[in-house]
């Protein structure tokens, strides 16, 4: 999951017109940028149109709904989203194995904290969908120059957040839930700003759903509790983050 000014548009409404994008190639005179929306072929199917959205019951692990697998859900999501677009294939998975392992632990700790398997599954499913869509946009050069600057800001902020997560775990009594919550909310604002012209309000709602959970101070307090039930999950999460940091992915 290789990703990187908070926006005044932090609050997203649930309605509004549908925004679509296609993988139409850039024209020779466009400087390598995709054509404006008004110039894109009429009728082109969007990965974030209503028909392209994944319904809430479609992503299920092969072993059954009780066996959560981020890797399997990511593969299903990638195939489903690409099937709604002009580009049908992509050489590599957009979510790497280490990130999938981290996601699996995030699911377990979310289920432990919320005591709600269905909600934990929905949070992680929303996270995977958003990550896949951003990955497809990035791989297909859909971000303009201004948005690529936001990508760079997001990478730096994500790196700072990742190092803070690990530091708070490795150095006892340094954990500050407000600091970590603020970093996560800054990441959320950057993601909203990055995909503003590409994704629908429904996807913006998913972004809020994911970040509002992980930035919740009560969740963070439970996660970092020295004698709490979530400590083993946090260790595995930090082990995975350290690996991504060492490999320069984060």
TrEMBL record:
Family classification: Belongs to the TNFAIP8 family.
Any Pfam family matching the protein: TNFAIP8
UniProt biased composition (Basic residues): 1-16
The protein, known as: TNF alpha induced protein 8 like 3
Location of the region described as Disordered in the Swiss-Prot/TrEMBL record: 1-61
GO process terms (BP): regulation of apoptotic process
Record-linked InterPro entries: TNFAIP8-like (IPR008477), TNFAIP8_sf (IPR038355)
Coiled-coil blocks: none
Organism listed in the record: Anser cygnoides (Swan goose)
Cellular-component GO terms for this entry: cytoplasm
